Amino acid sequence: MEFLKPYIVPASEIESRIRRIQSELLQNDIGGAFIVQRVDLFYFSGTAQNAFLYIPCEGEPLLFVKQYLPRARQESSIANITGITSIKDIPGLIIDFHGKLPEVMGFELDVLPVNDFVFYKELFKTTSHVDASGLILKVRQVKSSWEIEQMEVTAQMTARTFEYMKDVIREGLTEMEFSALFEMFARTIGHAGGLRVRNYQTEGYPWHVLSGKTGGLTGMLDSPASGEGTSAAFPVGAGYKKLCRNEPIMVDLGSVLNGYHMDETRMFAIGPLPQKAMDACLATIEIHDAVLERVRPGVSLGRLYDFSVKRAEKLGYAENYLGIPGYQVTFIGHGIGLELVEPPFIARNRKDVLKEGMVFALEPKMVFENEFSAGVESVFQVTDKGAKLISQVPVKVFVC
Question: What does the alpha-carbon distance between residue 129 and residue 108 come to, in Å, rounded to a whole number?
Answer without folding.
Answer: 11
